[in-house]
Design goal:
The protein has seven helices and 13 strands. By secondary structure, the chain is α/β, with parallel strands linked by helices. It has a single domain (about 10-245), classed as 4-Layer Sandwich (Metallo-beta-lactamase, Chain A), CATH 3.60.15. Helix 6 packs antiparallel against helix 7. The relative contact order is 0.14. The chain binds fe (ii) ion (FE2) (2 copies).
């Protein structure tokens, strides 16, 4: 398969783009994504301050800023959302605005970045968001993985699971799509950042009934359909965090 051009947005599924930065100095590659549904755009985990100029340069190739109506923020870590106020300012400059979709517990912390947008609290909205077209995004609660209010987003149309930190990987040798080495990177990340196997199992069990065509995590590499069940089992069986004391 041809190597994707990482200097541009990479279309990972129809109208869904990776808009991250291939930062060779970072063991944590961060993966923001854009989902376009007609002229409504959803922006997933928009990224950090140092990555902002590169991410912005790709976002404006993948959509128009005024179309961004929802920014899904899986938790409050700076690598995935410290750039929020900068995006707010630019979107406001176009006359637009967006909601920050997150868990109530995370909203209390995200506001400390100086955000001004309204919050769409996934836990107070039946764990779903319906776009103007009727397309539904389901939010899957993943408590304490690794933030108490962590969640993943399942797009019913593309069958992509935008998984936040879960299924992420840590490694300096990085590929946009998972290769044979990715399992080690996933283990390295989860062993050090996730609290316990019991909590991983609790969330993996929720995925058994979902048809998942791709997993798009916020760190590490994208997992294709043929490997999805394998990685669910890897996490279901992984000892991590407190299990390793
Ligand atoms: Fe995190
Ligand atoms: Fe993260």
């Amino acid at each position: 398969m041809a190597k994707p051009d990482l200097s541009n947005p990479v279309e990972i599924a129809k109208d869904i783009f990776w808009v991250g930065f291939d930062d060779a100095s970072a063991g944590f590659r961060c993966n923001p994504y854009i989902l376009n549904d007609g002229d409504e755009t959803v922006f997933f985990d928009p990224g950090s301050v140092p990555h902002f100029p590169i991410v912005l340069s790709k976002v404006i190739k993948a959509t128009r800023l005024e179309r961004i109506k929802h920014v899904i923020v899986t938790h409050q870590d700076p690598d995935l959302c410290a750039a929020l106020p900068r995006f707010e300012e630019l979107v406001a400059g176009t006359g637009g605005s967006f909601n920050i979709c997150t868990h109530t517990r995370a909203s209390l912390l995200i506001s400390h970045y100086g955000t001004r947008s309204g919050f769409y609290r996934v836990d107070a909205n039946d764990w779903r968001l319906t776009l103007q077209s009727g397309r539904k995004l389901q939010f899957i609660f993943a408590p304490f993985l690794h933030f108490p209010g962590a969640f993943m987003t399942y797009d019913e149309k593309s069958k992509i699971l935008f998984s936040g930190d879960i299924f992420g990987g840590f490694s300096f040798d990085w590929n946009l799509y998972a290769n044979e080495y990715y399992e080690e990177a996933v283990k390295a990340f989860h062993e050090n950042y996730m609290p316990s196997n019991r909590l991983l199992r609790h969330t993996m069990d929720k995925l058994d009934s979902l048809e998942i065509d791709m997993i798009a995590p916020q760190h590490g590499s994208i997992i294709r359909k043929e490997d999805v069940r394998h990685y669910i089992d890897v996490l279901r069986n992984l000892e991590c965090g407190g299990d390793l004391f």
